[in-house]
Amino acid sequence: GLIAGSGDELFADVTVGDARLVANVSAPRVPWDPRAPHTAGPEGWLGRTGLLPCHYYVHSFASPTRYELRRGRRRTRGTASAHVERNYGDAFPRGWVWAQASAPAPWAVQVQRSR
Asked: What is the pLDDT of residue 75?
């Protein structure tokens, strides 16, 4: 699959088994702290020390998102809010992807992969 971002937007096209998710996450993003949207994150001052073996940066809490989810012959389209973050550091594998989505039954998807 593919997950690519540019500026405040993100595109995902991911297939797992017979499920395929295509999503467009668009601006405006909702940063962790609007006063410092490109630098502030949930780690606060602790993130600037060497005490944490892994880090995460929240890009957005609730970006507007258009999606299409296909599973076999079933298909659903809609809009949602997306949470986007970056995780990195010595404790993470070289490659790591985690995604989660939820909607009214029977749709629920969680994907995790590392290498």
From this structure: 93
